[in-house]
Input
Amino acid sequence: LLFYQQQLLIEPLFIVLSLITLNLLHSSLKNKKLLTTLLTGFFFALTTLSRPNMLAFLPVILWLFRRYNKK
Output
């Protein structure tokens, strides 16, 4: 019981990082500022480091950036 309480669980970290990434992705597509785009990439990398399953979402992110930056 003591070991389990001191162990860092990765699921809550993944959820928080993925929510931050999605929020920044939405704001970077809306504002089109360089800082929010860089922060989106940074938090996407942190999320991918916590769980590599996030890499499956990479084509969707690239498609969204390409679609909304044509205008």
In short: The mean pLDDT is 87. The radius of gyration is 15 Å. The helical segments are 2-6, 10-31, 34-50, 58-68.
